[in-house]
Amino acid sequence: MATDSLNIYRAYLAGERHASANTISSYLRDVGQFETYLDEKYDCPLFEADTDMIRAYMGWMQGCGKSAASVTRFLASIKSFFTCMMAKGCAGSNPARQITAEKVERKYPEILSNKEVELFLEQPQCVDAKGYRDHAMLELLYATGIRVTELISLNLEDVNLTAAFIRCRSKGRERIIPMYHTAVKALQDYVRNVRPQIIADSDERALFVNMSGERMSRQGFWKIIKYYQEKAGIEKDITPHTLRHSFAVHLLENGADLRSIQEMLGHADISSTQIYTHVIKNQLKDVYNKAHPRA
To answer: Measuring CA to CA, which of 69, 168, 184, 185 is 20 to 30 A from 193?
Structure first.
């Protein structure tokens, strides 16, 4: 039954919650590890866990040195699991419903300055196929603020170079995101002159491919980001999400409204977008404290 319940939960996350692949993987891993704990300590099936068992497991996680963020995510995972079980008639109540986790101090995302973005985007040299491809990928990422999974999932038909926008699909929703001229030009050069030379199969629909001609992977793109960070000599830890965060903050700084940014980022809830207003406030405090003579 436990294996069946995890399969039901997987289908629920994907089909009803429209969760991302990363969220599904994380939640299933959390619940699966709890299942192992229950089996070894209580000889108890997963769907029969009670509140005391869940609390004991959270205490065990803390004793193993797990961070407050990890414990909080587990709690979200197990609450979601039992919500699913109740909806499917496999459980009568949610034993995690009344449990609260230790408050996690929110860490604000790393943001690149305008100069750092320019320096970073200048790194790929358009002298060979790899340089043109990398230049197009980085420009598109900063131009649109899309997630790395969305970037590598793009197909040729998702890009309209004439109208200067891309069509992005994620979590069961579709959104249209405009691009600035430099990104359009970088994509034109890549799509028309470079991509045809490196695709392994003429039927390949992936917009971005590796040098073997197949769809770019998350790991492959991560390596590209790290390579150009080192090449640029930027000390901040740049990840694929750093350009997404920088995209949002820079738009906000230049007068874009939160609702428009929310739409472009694909946030389901405006509260996810509001974090960028806090980032700007913190930056202003830093400037004030460094510059004001009486600060």
So the answer is: 168
10 in catalytic set:
no
For residue 154, the tally of other CB atoms under 10 A from its CB is: 23
Residue 103 belongs to a domain: no
Whole-number Å distance between alpha carbons of 243 and 5 = 38
Q: Quick one: which of 106, 182, 198, 90 has its CA closest to 138?
A: 182
Quick check: is 267 catalytic? yes
- Find out whether 193 and 132 touch, Cβ atoms under 8 Å: yes
Q: Which CATH number belongs to the domain containing residue 25 in this structure? A: 1.10.150
Strand partners, 169: 174
User: pLDDT by residue (tens digit) across 263-281?
Assistant: 999 887 787 888 888 787 7
Catalytic site includes residue 132: no
Judgement on whether residues 203 and 255 belong to the same structural domain of the protein: yes
Task: Specify whether 176 is located in the same domain as 220.
Answer: yes
What tens digit of pLDDT does each residue of 215-258 get?
999 999 999 999 999 999 999 989 888 999 999 999 998 889 99
Please identify which of the residues 147, 195, 245, 250 carries the catalytic annotation.
147
171 flagged as catalytic: yes
Same domain for 26 and 137? no
Q: Does 77 lie in the same domain as 141?
A: no
Residue of 18, 171, 226, 259 with catalytic role: 171
Q: What is the pTM of this model?
A: 0.65
Total of domains in the chain:
2
Range of the domain at 210: 114-289
